[in-house]
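During the second half of the funding period, the structural biology subgroup turned its attention to how the target accommodates small molecules. The most pressing case was adenosine-5'-diphosphate, which had performed well in the primary screen but for which no bound structure existed. We therefore specified the complex as follows and requested a full 3D prediction, including the ligand pose.
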Amino acid sequence: MDILFCTSEAYPLIKTGGLADVCGSLPQALSAPGNDVRIILPAYPEVLEHATGLTSLARLTLIGATEPVEILAGHFNDSNVGLYLVNSPVHFRRPGNPYVQEDGSDWPDNAERFALFARAVVALALGQADTGWRPQVVHCNDWQTGLVPALLSQHEVRPATLFSIHNLAFQGLFPVETFTALKLPESLWSIDGLEFHGKLSFIKGGIACADQVTTVSPTYAQEICTSTFGCGLEGLLQYRSASLTGILNGMDCKTWNPATDRFIERTYNIHNLQHKLANKLALQRDHGLPRGGQPLLLGYIGRLVEQKGVDLILVMLEQLFRHPIQLVVLGSGDRALEKRFEDAAHRYPDRLSVHIGYNEQLAHRIQAGADCLLMPSRYEPCGLSQMYSLAYGTVPITHRTGGLADTIVNLDKTTASDYSATGFSFDDATPEAIVDTCVRALSYFQASRINWWKLVITGMKKDYSWPASAAQYLELYRDMCGLKDSTPENQGLHASSPGLILLNTERQETHIH
Ligand code: ADP
């Protein structure tokens, strides 16, 4: 199959969070013989710095750009996956985070930037940029790409479209005037299109107009159809439920492998787990915490925002530190939460170490050195850190929601005795539940190291690599293109059939109008 994968970030070229991890590794997992997968990204400075072997493919005249926009072509991460970059310096060549300025506020022209990106994707999808290639499927990710299915839905002959929701809370909402300023087709201004309570919603373009919608775990797929997690879009998602699937993210087992990790103090695997202790001692040493195997060393890695439940950790520190527990925190986000963590680190210097900022190496060292990883997220579409921690033998302590519910088996009497447990979970995201669960983990840790190692090993043996999830995406792509029979011969036969594309247009009309 020919697949165009569009995203605003992909590791290792540019990363702000889990979206980049997924968009960096899923295309590579999809790229088996017979599949031609190509990623399209904005040409941010960091991307231009890291990508190699780029050539200039085309210059496109696009609405929203006063100059022709250059499309660069190359290969993604030295793999078989193709790479297209949308090179519009006025939109994308600026330092720092792709979405926000240094003070944490959104770039004021985000709507213009990602509308332009979407128009470049559409040109490519319709064969107007790379004349030698036309994808059968365009796979879009999160609000930054939401206009792609909306704009493509205006074309009778077009590729099938899939929109993946990685986090429904980020919607790309802009005032109605922006809709006019972006010169979007009038027909898209309706409650079946881009209008959301009088505002322009980029994410609605994806949810309402794509042929299929996915999200990143089966539990989150159910949750977003409820008013608690639906962020106001639950009605639309219920309406689209026949075309909504939850496919669990996989993890990149090359980058996150304690047996080969070049960032950590000492590599290890299930056969030499004693080496994990060297990582714990190194983490304690590096972060000014008393060294020793006895205290339960907790780690937190992630955005410091309300979604992640970090405020719930902050209010329970005093109770937590009555027990032999240490905590290393790495993250950035909400300035007020960052400050509260920094203040707390001064109050508990030999219990708490806090690192504000983004640090890939430290993330690996915490995964390797901690005994447990805390993830009290109020909601968690999938979550990758808990999968990495399973691979690193670092027992997750998680709120039972979204992908955390789908990946972590809580330790109780049954799961302890049949050795199926992989972590400690709680049902309500409250400070009390976090303390109780951490203390429960501590008791288990102190009671029997043999049982603890069994718990660790069960987690390390779990396979959350990409192949199973990639196979589900491929199945969905085939369905969308009417390729019911997935034998390689038939894929080739249908790939060149224009009838397919018309079939999808018809489907689109049945779903939406
Ligand atoms: P998110 O909601 O942020 O996407 P995920 O758990 O899905 O959460 O993915 C988070 C990813 O970002 C993981 O790879 C994690 O290691 C990484 N990460 C988050 N914050 C930091 C940080 N401050 N420094 C280094 N890596 C980070």
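Two results from this model are relevant to the next phase. The longest strand covers residues 36-42. The pocket of adenosine-5'-diphosphate is lined by residues 17-19, 21, 301-303, 330-332, 358-360, 363, 382-385 (CB under 6 Å).
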